[in-house]
Write a structure and sequence with these properties.
Blueprint lengths: L10 H15 L4 H12 L3 H13 L7 H15 L7 H9 L8 H10 L1 H14 L3 H15 L1
Helix pairs in contact: 1-2, 1-3, 3-4, 4-6, 5-7, 6-7, 7-8
Length: 147
């Protein structure tokens, strides 16, 4: 491999790669997805979670939020990096910006903590959140997990 220089993949570069894939292909392109997955498999699992969670909670790309979350959600479920945040806080932060069609995110948390624990967290949050989007997200997560 003469002349090949290994690319250094840091958190910001991977996030920008995900956004670039979504912007270019309008969603999950299988080849691009596989390339990003391969990069993530070489990184520290805590960093992988942070990268994917950052994409999932980014509210600054409303036009591509569904595609961003679909891309990151699939990777999160496939790679199963341990959640580096307290689960209630991690879920609550997601509820404000969660696209209701992304079933991979609730399933990721169910695999990390168990379905019953996630459902308990959602019931607790249901009494604490006031935003309609959060309430709708809670009901959708429950539907995905109980359906």
């Amino acid at each position: 491999m003469s002349g090949f220089i290994a690319m250094v993949w840091d958190k910001e570069r991977v996030i920008q790669r995900i956004y670039g894939c979504v912007d270019r292909y309008g969603g999950v392109n299988p080849q691009q997805y596989s390339q990003v997955e391969s990069v993530l498999q070489k990184l520290d699992s805590a960093e992988v979670f942070e990268i994917l969670y950052t994409v999932l909670t980014n509210v600054n790309r409303p036009a591509t939020r569904f595609a961003d979350q679909e891309f990151a959600g699939r990777l999160l479920l496939a790679l199963q990096p341990p959640c580096t945040l307290e689960p209630t806080q991690a879920i609550q932060n997601l509820l404000e910006c969660y696209n209701l069609s992304i079933e991979e995110v609730p399933w990721y948390f169910a695999r990390q903590y168990g379905k019953s624990i996630v459902l308990e967290i959602l019931e607790k949050l249901k009494t604490e959140v006031v935003c309609g989007q959060q309430q709708q997200s809670i009901e959708t997560w429950k539907w995905w997990l109980q359906g």
